[in-house]
Amino acid sequence: MTDDERALNGLSEPEEKLAGQLEELGPLMREQERAEAEMDPQFARNLRAHLVHGEELAPHPTFARNLRARLLRRRSARPVRKPSRRRTLAWMGLGGGAAAAVVAALLVVLLHRPQTPAPAFKAPFPSRSDLVFSYPSSPIVIHHLTPTVSLVHPAPGLPYAGRLQLKAGALPTEPTRLTAYRLTAPSNVVTLGRRLFGIRSPVRHLVAATADWAVAADGGIPSHRPLHSLAISLRTGELIYHDRRNTLLPHASHPLDRIHAVGAARNWLSRLGWPGRRMPVRLFGNVGSLRYVRSVAFAWIGVGETAVQSATLWVTPNGSVIEAWVWPPVAQQTLIPTRPVSAAWTEVRKGTLPLAVEGVSPYRRANGTGSLQRTIVAWVLSAGARGNLYLVPTYRFEGSVHIPGASIHTWYGLAPSAQR
Amino acid sequence: MPRDEQMQMRPEAPPELVARAGHDPAAFGDLYDHYLPRVYAFCRKYSETREEAEDLTALTFERALTAIHRYQERDIPFSRWLLRVAANALIDQSRRTGRLTSFGSDLELMSDESHLEQWEQAYWLRTHVEALPRDQQEVVRLRFYEDQRFRDVAARMGRSEGAVKQLLRRALRVLQLRIQEETEEAPSDD
Fold first, then answer.
1. What Cα–Cα distance (Å) separates residue B119 from each residue in A24, A31, A41, A307?
2. How far does B44 lie from chain A, in Å, by closest CA?
3. Looking at the domain that runs over B10-130, which CATH code has it been given?
4. A-B contacts at Cβ under 8 angstroms
5. Domain spans of chain A?
6. B36: burial class by Cβ within 10 Å (0-12, 13-18, 19+)?
7. Per-residue confidence in pLDDT tens, chain B, 190 aa
8. Which of A32, A145, A251, B105 could make an SS bond with A208 (beta carbons 3.0 to 4.6 A apart)?
9. Are residues B149 and A22, on separate chains, in Cβ contact within 8 Å?
């Protein structure tokens, strides 16, 4: 007999029986206790509101985090563009015969013409906040514009608080020019959308996050009816749609397949006047917190890597769109002269530009050492002085970093490509 | 025992609340508050992720909301009925998705009422353990929940083995007395 067994001596028969029960059920009791401790109080409140009042009063944090993760694009490896076709052709012209030079020169002239008939414009130089917009945000920060405009709005990203010492790496040859894009000016699409989606409340204007918004919203706090709203920023054209009337999908048995989900998202965009039929699909997947809902993200037509998706929509099994975050389409494009990649890299290494570290709290202050593994061109949103919104090119540097007390992570940093 | 403590320890909501919940949303809200932790913990046991457990919990309460009027005629505790709803939702979901990886043969186990009874029994015992003084709770947790040997429990609690054994005897005695009191107070079925 072991010490442990002897310890039960001296107990009455019912007490021994009870000890036996505890012995048997203890692991289950521990499991119950852990699960209850893990339960998200926000989830509990939302589900209660849904069951008792027929609505969700506030976005679920997981829902918010997932939305943000899906709205802000996941980067994929893409090498920096080789020296442009225009430059190649120009060099061919110099090295070849006279005829070839004439042909090449003509081609250079033709290719340098703006590809749209509209006149060129002056693209803004991206600000620090433009650069960090796509950086990781603290999971505890959810940026609410106002509940009427947006239940869940991605918080601006945060640069890593510690300092990273970055080793030199091979830099690609930079293109001499890159394209900048001006997006369509905001239109009062809310009036159209309100009619299309059957929102009964009139369009009203409100100021949130320093922008003027046109909003049509039925339900929401404090009406005890689920929110159904469409809002557009009259400054940037950013469009936000929520339909929380059936987010729990009690009767759904499976999600839509890719063809139908993408088709429903394209239709939705087209009805609002976006070129939904031609927008390339960039991401397709599930929404973690809503099992049968599909997430479809589109890129801008003709634009390369972007830090933010052009449009992200959530589609239910019956083809309804329940969430949408959409930026205006491209209206004009122009070529802008670029600065050397090496100059941008020097700024990054000096620590004068903000850097991000994935998977590590941005509030950590531990310093790390990293290396450069890849450089690509990525376009970021930037607002001009007159209120237009632009996509301007940046160099995106990325690599791995070692931070004491953490495993190896990916760091990245964006630096403007344009000459100042 | 103070009345408040007694109420807190009751694993079942009052029958009149259950009866009202069929037509009164506020009463259903109270029922939800009472049973949510148990239902969530049950769903979590058979879900791979928190999100899955949340979906399943939502589904369980939605089904319960539409079917609660049928419960009135049933002769089982409400908690058991609710867990049965959860178990059925889980079984349906697993069959539909064809995904049995996380629980496998547990599905068959879930069709067995004794499994739900065991879950309820564990929950009921927990409510009693949680009413014990803090040091007695700790010794019960370490010894039975975590299955630790007395010398390890003693090291964790910073006491001698003898003191820990004595503390556990006291905890068992108190628990037994409270369970006995509750059994005596419970209305007879006759």
1. 12, 10, 23, 49
2. 6
3. 1.10.1740.10
4. 134
5. 3-38, 85-181+333-416, 185-328
6. buried
7. 333 333 334 578 888 888 888 888 888 888 898 999 999 999 988 887 777 788 788 888 888 888 888 886 567 888 989 998 998 888 776 665 554 434 444 555 555 677 788 888 899 899 899 889 999 999 999 999 988 999 999 999 999 999 999 999 999 999 999 888 877 765 544 4
8. A145
9. no
